[in-house]
């Protein structure tokens, strides 16, 4: 089965083509036959297109004009044409899977895209204004390029549908719940994949493990995974809640918002911009939302950058502590995504604060760019893993399962 995956962002559209045997899913992630990415620039509506095949052929072009759908169509054209050709014609593709950030309460599992599904994705765009509209653009681009092909929506919120009410419902008026205001959680595709992969690496049954997964990228969230199910998470009604992030503030006193609205006369747009784009590492350090840049500034004696680091670590430890109480213990701690996979300093700082659990990491292993590896010492009471998140592969798996079932 040939499965094309589209993963939409605010300024990019990534795509991968996988081929999975009809008989059974492999135990480990396959490498895509083909991968492409469109990155939209601010320059005259330009688009940078990069394509690479498993055998090393590449395409890199910048084009201008046309619509975003046309740019995606141009990228997909490279599947069956030119040096990056891996199939004879696009009709060989059996299904297209899309990452959709917000599915609300109605969509808890992957579904075949219908008119009703499209309306729901559009409806929830107000809660995920960066990502849901981009997912809709991707679906439309596939319709234009590949015609009447089966498309599947895989929802980031789906994995957290198992949150108990005590964790999911906010302590405001009960009427909020009737309005759909509740904790949804995000990064679910990643949390689900890395928790299952952790069990596989450890040779343990996922249904017997208590795991905290730390998805640390520009957006950051934690999940408490018990017996393979999400029972708590840090992101909430929107992806703004929870941990301190690259440019998002995470959890703050809601009274601050009332104060800013009343005393500083913030508009809704100004407030949105401050909370989502001018806070977090960027807002505190004044340097960047990118952790390596903050670390570089710390080395140069930048006190605000040091404060940003200290706050980031403090809030991450505190978040892990909250997940720990939900689980009632801990068997494995997992780091994933850009920061989680690539920052030994963050992993070291976090784990040092969890020594009271009997958790110890091998400092040498931690520094050696571990990947899909347990970096805990043999005497550690808790396993600590660094796992490369494979959201695209996870989407392909779920498409395969949906069509097979």
Automatic annotation (TrEMBL):
Instruction: List the InterPro entries hit by this protein, alphabetically.
Output: Ac/propionate_kinase, Aliphatic_acid_kin_short-chain, Aliphatic_acid_kinase_CS, ATPase_NBD
Q: Which cofactor does it need?
A: Mg(2+); Mn(2+)
**Cofactor binding notes:** Mg(2+). Can also accept Mn(2+).
Q: Does this entry carry the keyword Hydrolase?
A: no
Copy the pathway line from the protein's UniProt record: Metabolic intermediate biosynthesis; acetyl-CoA biosynthesis; acetyl-CoA from acetate: step 1/2
Keyword annotations for this protein, in alphabetical order, are: ATP-binding, Cytoplasm, Kinase, Magnesium, Metal-binding, Nucleotide-binding, Transferase
Provide one Gene Ontology biological process annotation. Answer: acetyl-CoA biosynthetic process
Reactions catalysed according to its record: acetate + ATP = acetyl phosphate + ADP
Name of the protein in its database record:
Acetate kinase
Q: Which organism is it from?
A: Cylindrospermum stagnale PCC 7417
This chain is encoded by the gene named ackA
